[in-house]
Amino acid sequence: LKTTPPGPGSRLVTVRESNPLFDELFTAHDGIRFAATGGFVEDDLGVSCYHSKVGAVELLLNHLVDRTDEFVVVDMVAGAEAFASGMFTRFDHTFLVCEPTLRSVGVYKQYLGYAEDYDVRISVIGNKIDDDDDVAFLREHVGDALLGWCARSKYVKAAERGSVGPVADLEPENLAVVDAARERAVAAGKDWAKFTRQAHEFHRKAALAWGNDRAGVDLADQIVPDFVLGEHLLNAPVH
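That's the ATP-binding protein sequence above. Prediction below.
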């Protein structure tokens, strides 16, 4: 299952390592690795759902140990789609991009409502901001969750037209928002115990809902209750 949690016998992966999977599926640019999922091939049309594709991301995150000086960024589908599995609990901090419209802040409020019982850290970044009225609108609807906002950007428009320049060319006020998001993510820190506990929780749910029937065994037996993912495992002796 895409919710399969790590355990003592798992093949854990790290951000900077080389392995056949990363070497085949990731592309490096300026020292950053990129990968994408979610695309459909002809045999998928009318047969496979979107979550059958993004489940690979959840499975990878469940077995990935990122160190405190490393960043893993996932650009997710917006809104309630993120709650079709435990994917929304796989992050140290979640940034929701909101435009100054009722529809957009409605997506934020829906996300917040679904996540409220799972100790998910959420910040809002305003987008396509034209004036102070737009900022005031977001403050009214999201309050202190508003981390910052990005004005309409010639850099982004050029990038979307295929002319991608260095990130340093992003407008200073917009680049400052990116810096603030990075600082917020660092401040969030790592809570490996919570990360592992929630992986176990959603694996049990998936197993009971459909996984056990499909596999013919109790997949909850894959859970090792006292196993906790984390950096300490990178230096553990191999038996």
